[in-house]
Amino acid sequence: MGLITQLLTLPLAPVRGAVWVMDQLVLTAEQQYYDPEPVRQQLAALEQELLDGRITEEEFDRIEDELLDELEWRQAWQRQHQRDP
Fold first, then answer.
1. Which of 7, 31, 60, 71 could cross-link to 39 by cystine, CB 3.0-4.6 Å?
2. CA end-to-end span of the chain
């Protein structure tokens, strides 16, 4: 049955290939977009700005809260999608 199905659907092979490629592109783009590492780097740079006196404690707290929120949802997305096959 599998061989007959493959032969009958052979004309659709280019479409299946294009769909697979698009799925891989979307997956790669999502992984890059939700990567928590850039946010961690921003947090480190923010701390350095505070230590250098370029920003106030209030600015630091406000920006840090925003970055930590963003880091949290990026990590949640990655945890959710690591379990999905």
1. 71
2. 27
